[in-house]
Automatic annotation (TrEMBL):
GO terms for biological process: D-xylose metabolic process. This is Xylose isomerase. Mg(2+) 1 binds at E234, E270, D298, D341. Belongs to the xylose isomerase family. Mg(2+) 2 binds at E270, H273, D309, D311. Its main location: cytoplasm. It comes from Jiella pacifica. The gene is xylA. Its cofactor is Mg(2+).
């Protein structure tokens, strides 16, 4: 099988405009369109996730594989991995995306030993490096899978067995070396099993300190090899563990402060994880910006009727408009991007369904970006927000926060005050957003 024969087209997907009904044409994503002084492609920085697109077989807890990809069966593992790389880079070309992202074991098979696994990863890294010389696509980030193998069933950095901790260090070293060699803009850590199932067998302080030490060593190594991008932690509250130590943005921020990691470690925030933590996507993005730890985004969505991580493609224009509005307010991405940590449904078995899903979601994000731009230009949300907090611009108010006036002085002044509540105008603001999306 050649990569060209897997998909039913050879011509890259192009912008056709809003009148088009072709599912393999962009209706809103015009990569060269200027949005607030920057190309749309440079704002959105789309990335294809290697694992869901090329590694997930289409199974679920009640049924097995549905996709039957040619590179998943019937050959030597490393040769199949090379075949998978051919298909992946062909899809990157067809979608004309600027970035991709991968786990180590997504791109290269695990060996019987860590050395064998590292050797396999080097082989595929060589192939990626060669392909990237003639391709547009670049690496948004790499990461190590420290959750799938049986050895990690009790965690990686937080494991009660120090040998597992050491093995995880070895695996991460190889993964960040590969990421660095390929010019990756970031390196991601997702603690898939860094948590607990029951407190009866868990020493939380010990495990928390182990995780802090692991991340501190990773930061030191990043500087040693000259990796200039940030380390990104991806918060998630549960699944597969009952409770994970990187529960949400606030929890990770406290962790970073405790172990003095805020200068080098930022966050990769995912929509579905935010919802599982009881927050909105917009909430988590705002909080990360507020604390100076925003890094990148995984875009997908969950199902409102299901309480687990379904990783569906992002299609909610309003949700993306609010997130991208916050992004534009802060100048957009630096090293991060919009990574499609999303998988097509297990009934979407045609090869072109992979392309169609990405195209539809890229269009949804593009519509969200245009709505965000219009809201910012019109000050549709920023002006009401400024008015709501305008009182804090007075001299007395600023003095309270700066320390010029103390507790007793403020209390004395309060005796002459009779503040009255003002409307929060929530419904008006919701209506304003609806006008733009």
């Amino acid at each position: 099988m050649t990569s060209q024969s897997f998909f039913n087209r050879t011509t890259p997907v192009a912008f056709a405009g809003a009148e088009s009904h072709d599912p393999l044409a962009f209706t809103f994503y015009d990569k060269d369109r200027q949005v607030m002084g920057k190309r749309m492609e440079d704002h959105l920085r789309f990335s294809v996730a290697y694992w869901h697109s090329f590694t997930w077989p289409g199974g679920d807890p009640f049924g097995g594989e549905t996709f039957n990809r040619p590179w998943m069966h019937g050959g030597e593992a490393l040769e199949l991995a090379k075949q998978k790389a051919d298909v992946a880079f062909e899809m990157f070309r067809l979608l004309d995306v600027p970035f991709f992202a991968f786990h180590d074991v997504d791109v290269a098979p695990e060996g019987e030993t860590l050395q064998q696994s590292n050797d396999n990863l080097k082989v595929i890294t060589d192939i990626f490096e060669e392909k990237m010389q003639s391709a547009k696509v670049r690496l948004l980030w790499g990461t190590a899978n420290l959750f799938s193998n049986r050895r990690y069933m009790a965690g990686a950095a937080t494991n009660p067995d120090p040998d597992v901790f050491a093995y995880a260090v070895g695996q991460v070293k190889a993964a960040i070396d590969a990421t660095h060699r390929l010019g990756g803009a970031n390196y991601v850590c997702w603690g898939g099993r860094e948590g607990y199932e029951t407190l009866l067998n868990t020493d939380m302080k010990r495990e928390y300190d182990q995780l802090g030490r692991f991340m501190s060593m990773l930061v030191d190594y990043k500087h040693k090899i000259g990796f200039s991008g940030p380390i990104l932690i991806e918060p998630k509250p549960k699944e597969p563990t009952k409770h994970q130590y990187d529960y949400d943005v606030a929890t990770v921020y406290a962790f970073l402060q405790k172990y003095d990691l805020t200068a080098d470690v930022k966050l990769n925030i995912e929509q579905n994880h935010a919802i599982l933590a009881g927050h909105s996507f917009d909430h988590e993005v705002k909080l990360a910006f507020a604390n100076g730890i925003f890094g990148s985004l995984d875009i997908n969505r969950g199902d409102d009727l299901l309480g687990w991580d379904t990783d569906q493609f992002a299609m909610d224009v309003k949700e993306m408009a609010l997130v991208l509005h916050e992004m534009l307010k802060h100048g957009g991405f630096t090293t991060g991007g919009l990574n499609f940590d999303a998988k097509i449904r297990r009934q979407s078995i045609d090869p072109d369904d992979l392309l169609i899903a990405h195209v539809a979601s890229m269009d949804a994000c593009a519509r969200g970006l245009l709505a965000a731009e219009a809201m910012l230009k019109d000050e549709a949300l920023t002006k009401p927000l400024t008015e709501r907090y305008a009182g804090w611009e007075s001299g007395n108010a600023k003095a309270m926060l700066s320390g010029e006036t103390g507790f007793e002085e403020i209390a004395e002044r309060a005796l002459s005050l009779n503040p009255q509540p003002r409307s929060g105008r929530q419904e008006m603001l919701e209506g304003i957003v609806n006008r733009y999306v």
